[in-house]
Amino acid sequence: MILIVFLISQSSALFTPMQVHLSWTEKSSEMCVMWQSRMSGEAKISYRPYLCKQNFDWKTINAQTSRIDFGTEMPRYSYIHTAIMTDLQADCYYEYTVGIGYFWTESFVFSGRTPGHDINTSYKMMIFGDLGTHYHGQKSLNLMKTMTETQEILGIMHMGDIGYNLEYDQGLIGDKFLDMIKPIATTHAYMTMPGNHEQANNFTAYKQRFLMPRNEASQNSSYFYSLNIGHVHYICLNTNPFLIIEQKSERKTMINWLKDDLFKANNNRNNVPWIIILHHHTFYCTLNPNMEMSRKDCEVQAEIIRNALEDIYYENKVDLVLAGHVHRYERQASIYKNQTILGDVDEQNKHVNAKAPIYIVSGSAGNRSNKNDPSSPYNYLWTRFVSDDFGFGMLTMINKTTLLWEQFSSESDKMIDYVYIIKQNNQTSS
Ligand SMILES: *[C@@H]1O[C@H](CO)[C@@H](O)[C@H](O)[C@H]1NC(C)=O
Ligand SMILES: *[C@@H]1O[C@H](CO)[C@@H](O)[C@H](O)[C@H]1NC(C)=O
Ligand SMILES: *[C@@H]1O[C@H](CO)[C@@H](O)[C@H](O)[C@H]1NC(C)=O
Ligand SMILES: *[C@@H]1O[C@H](CO)[C@@H](O)[C@H](O)[C@H]1NC(C)=O
Ligand SMILES: *[C@@H]1O[C@H](CO)[C@@H](O)[C@H](O)[C@H]1NC(C)=O
Ligand SMILES: *[C@@H]1O[C@H](CO)[C@@H](O)[C@H](O)[C@H]1NC(C)=O
Ligand SMILES: [Fe+2]
């Protein structure tokens, strides 16, 4: 008897679905769910509409399973399961549960408003970089969780430097990170981009654990993709290849895809007027250039990335560029080639008809290697607001003409900065 109980409890631990998380795919009306188990088995997902007019029964589909080997010195392996829920309706919520054999999770609920739906409906998107599993990241996550529970938030975008590092301790850090974000990632699409801390072994751990919208150019690698959500066209990029000499061909492939994607987005601007680009490394930041790390981030590497991308953003009238990497919050004005470009109105908390991209760094979700040097200059001509508090951003698409960006501090649990970005008469920047 004791032996049987022991065996059941052991096998339940081995088969229990863990680290369940959601992401949007390249198609609207779809949601991808991924999870992990120690042992392989028949992996399935059951889901059904919830809180809407339809009253369908549970639908069960099989997942695809792949084995990952975390290391050779001490063998440790695990199974990653991926399934895609289809035909989701925007006016429904969905309840789902995932299982391996006889072992199923509790059920989770998410909104069926996938990208491409509800172009006129206002929504909020949580956005940040550099989270990790340490104390400060946990604290940010607590506030994120409270906000996802008390407000209608459509999705989450994590601009790289995900777990510090997903592959460490034979992947146990990756497990820990995905366990940590479970309260928000089982209920919201958790979208990612690779940062420098995802680079190991050609981004292997990143590609194994996250599936982002697929496209041919990226070879389904989750490196870069774009999505239309309401009146915003989001482009998520991988800035690492600009800093890795051997990745010359990856650089070229992504730039060609980007130019093509921007061309199409510009032709669709009557319907989707805003273009926002997100990636890990930033173009502009103001850390003290006398410090080695700061000089590397804000001068050397930022310049390499600007040289590769800034003209493309400017010529294609990109509205807003969001990044992480620098572990603080810095909001900047419209900039082109390090010069502030004036729009029709440029107040502290409001830009109207900007003439060049506005830049925001929100890379303070969790990791801070050390406090930034307090002598770091804040007084660049284009600096609008700087904070060293841990926290994260929230973008609200209010309507076709108005976006609101807010930054929240997880130290004071307060909103610490905001800016309205307004575009009248369907004008585009520049
Ligand atoms: C969005 O709103 C505009 C203006 O009010 C309207 O013309 C358009 O049909 C709406 N689009 C959708 C998909 O509801
Ligand atoms: C790295 O991964 C990308 C995309 O998955 C692939 O195109 C490339 O060939 C890989 N590079 C190496 C060196 O394995
Ligand atoms: C990418 O994914 C699509 C959709 O699942 C599939 O049809 C295609 O073969 C994949 N391409 C590559 C290069 O893996
Ligand atoms: C913070 O980031 C730095 C550099 O990006 C990294 O070396 C360090 O391990 C990270 N620390 C924590 C606590 O996550
Ligand atoms: C950018 O402009 C600031 C002044 O706003 C100046 O201090 C800085 O050196 C300039 N950087 C470059 C790379 O020109
Ligand atoms: C968009 O929202 C702003 C802020 O709430 C409002 O002032 C403006 O009139 C709205 N514009 C349209 C076209 O609905
Ligand atoms: Fe980074």
TrEMBL record:
Per UniProt, residues of the Calcineurin-like phosphoesterase domain are: 125-329
Gene3D superfamilies xref list: 3.60.21.10, Purple acid phosphatase-like, N-terminal
Domain Purple acid phosphatase N-terminal stretches = 17-110
What catalytic activity does the UniProt entry give for this protein? a phosphate monoester + H2O = an alcohol + phosphate
User: Which Pfam families does the record match to this protein?
Assistant: Metallophos, Metallophos_C, Pur_ac_phosph_N
Q: Which UniProt keywords apply?
A: Glycoprotein, Hydrolase, Signal
Q: What is its EC number?
A: 3.1.3.2
Q: InterPro entries in the record, alphabetically?
A: Calcineurin-like_PHP, Metallo-depent_PP-like, MPP_PAP, PAPs_C, PAPs_N, Purple_acid_Pase-like_N
* Similarity-based family: Belongs to the metallophosphoesterase superfamily. Purple acid phosphatase family.
- Protein name stated in the entry: Purple acid phosphatase
This protein's species is Stentor coeruleus
